[in-house]
Specification:
Oligomer: single chain
Distance between the termini: 26 Å
Shape: elongated
Helix content: over 70%
Number of strands: 0
Number of helices: 3
Largest sheet: none
Radius of gyration: 23 Å
Order of helices and strands: HHH
Strand content: under 5%
């Protein structure tokens, strides 16, 4: 259900951006369209940066200098060391 809300929100933002460009063209010409488009791109870049920053803060810090930097490397190191990765991971 949450995905549907995200799609609706994205559609509304896209529609608002398109209308902003049309209004900019009608009232300011091509130069104003460039300004509005640049502002929209900057807002999208800020939103993406915020999402990645929030996502990156939830990762646990690795332990020690020999720690794996990602889940895939951690599993590979566990296989090489002979430690069990777990049934849930092994059967995926």
């Amino acid at each position: 259900m949450a995905v549907r809300g995200v799609r609706l929100g994205g559609a509304l933002v896209g529609l608002a951006a398109a209308l902003a460009v049309v209004v900019a063209y009608l009232f300011g010409g091509p130069r104003m369209v460039w300004i509005v488009a640049a502002a929209e791109v900057a807002l999208v870049m800020l939103d993406v940066a915020r999402r990645f920053r929030v996502r990156g803060q939830h990762r646990p810090a690795p332990d020690g200098p020999e720690a794996a930097h990602c889940e895939r490397c951690r599993r590979a190191r566990e296989r090489l060391d002979g430690r069990s990765v777990g049934d849930a991971v092994r059967h995926q």
